[in-house]
Amino acid sequence: MSDVHYYQGLARSMMFTIILVSFAPLFVVVLIAGYQYSVAYEEKVEAHLRELVLKHDQTIDAYLDEKMAEIRVLAEVIDLGHLATPGGIEALHDALTVGHGTDFVDLGLIDEHGIQVAYSGPFQLRGLDYSREPWFKAVRENTVHVSDVGLGMRGVPHFIIALRMRADGREWVLRSTLDFIAFNRLVENIRIGETGMAYIINREGEFQTTPRRDMTAEAPFLRELARSLTGTADQVHGRAAMAVMDNPATHRETIFVTSPIKGGDWLMVYQQDTADAFATLNRSRDLAIGILFLGGLAITVMAFLMSRRMARKVERADAAKDILNEQIIEAGKLASVGELAAGIAHEINNPVAIMVEEAGWIQDLLEEGLSRGDNEREVQRALNQIRTQGARCKEITHKLLSFARKIDPTIMSFDLNDLVREIAELSGQRAKYANVVIETSLGDNIAPIEASPSEMQQVFLNLVNNAIDAMDPGGGDLDIITRQEGDTVLALVTDTGSGIPEANLSRIFDPFFTTKPVGKGTGLGLSIIYGIINKLGGTISVDSAVGRGTTFTIRLPAGKARGADGGEGGAEAPEA
Known about the structure:
A five-stranded antiparallel sheet has the order 2-1-5-4-3, with helices on both faces. Strands 11-13-14-16-15 form a five-stranded mixed sheet. It has a four-stranded antiparallel sheet with strand order 6-9-8-7, sandwiched between helices. Helix content is 52%, strand content 19%. By secondary structure, it is of the alpha+beta class. Helix 1 (4-77) packs antiparallel against helix 9. The chain has helices spanning 4-77, 80-83, 86-100, 134-141, 180-188, 219-229, 233-236, 274-277, 279-368, 375-404, 416-426, 428-433, 453-471, 502-505, 525-535, and strands at residues 104-110, 116-120, 144-146, 159-167, 170-178, 197-202, 241-247, 252-261, 266-273, 412-414, 436-442, 449-451, 476-485, 488-495, 539-545, 549-557. Strand 7 (241-247) and strand 8 form a beta hairpin. One of its GO terms (molecular function) is ATP binding. It catalyses: ATP + protein L-histidine = ADP + protein N-phospho-L-histidine. It is found in: Cell membrane. It is an enzyme of class 2 (transferase).
């Protein structure tokens, strides 16, 4: 728990969790709202473009219908005989100019042979033969005809409205050239953004208005577009057709909106790059992404700072917990020493009694005098006995003080069997008074373990004391077994006591849980054992039944195996 890498990993884990919990809802909200806004905005733009094209389509159709209606009115009210004279057609043209401005550029009367017999306008076109012109052939078949835009004989773009009339058994054609510039301006007014523009093409894909830029390279593509969009379901139902496709000339995705005019002979086309059409949407999207990025950055910074702060608090709490655990273990160890006090006191009392008896015997011999009989040799024997019993007391107290000293958590390699023998010897006197027989069955050549010897002393002493308590006062057998299974060293502590009720088995390792009478136990022993074993990467389990006894099984990772000479695999167990 004190490893710096652990707390760094904990801080990263908390930071990623905070980022995920905080950023995920923000991301989902922005994603859903952005998608809904995008769909609504695109639908709005598409509807606006369709409406725009249809309105201009209607405006242009109305413009052409108006001009054709005016020509029809003229045909009904004029006298063809007067119109065929130069003065008559000029007077009519002047009247049209006064009433309609420059919409009607010129006016001409053509006979059935296609010869223009009367003309009024800025050009010298009287006497020209129009019999081979497509518009003349078309008007012979239809009463009124609006031609395509072309250069014609005058060499400038224009288009003609022609009306077929009959008088005195002859057919006449009244022709007028409409102002192309004014007509072109009607179409050019459809302009949105930087790339939006409108133009008119005929069925062959030929331009009937002048686009804002050179589109010669796009003519084949527009012909295909005209064929693909003409007669679509949208146009059949009076709606503008829309298509989004890559423009081969500009290599950009482009929106095309088309609508037929002039009875389907012409096609109104509006085109605009999608990036331009959805510029506002793209800016909003970029703004949302920017806000999302800044929000994510702020969340990341705050998560980083908060996670580091929380990790430091956890580290301090763990340090405090380690200190508390150490104090609890120390307290538990002292409590165990208290339980051993009676046995230790009796074990020390025997050599002390011998020493007192020998000292009294020496005093008696001194009173008789050392020169008598074997008194000097007997005094020497008594002194040796006092020295022997003093050494025995010193060994007992040394073991007790060694066990009772402050817990040393230093990890080292040692032989578990040596520690078990020491605990069995230390607990022998108390077991004797409780009528408990301690037996050890220690495996040969088991690998050393990596642990704190003083903490492992605490583990086994608590288990032994609990077992003796469970068999008091009737007594019983206590077996301590060690063996090795693969890379694991096992230690089993088995008693023939009263056993543990099944209802308590799941709680025996809980702190402060005890079934002993008040004042006989703290409930910390098994909790301390569990913490020590778990810290070493091992496990402890219990198998018990009422009336059958209890077995605690400890599994610890094995260290390096000892060699034949016993030198490898760690240092000797420290003297207790």
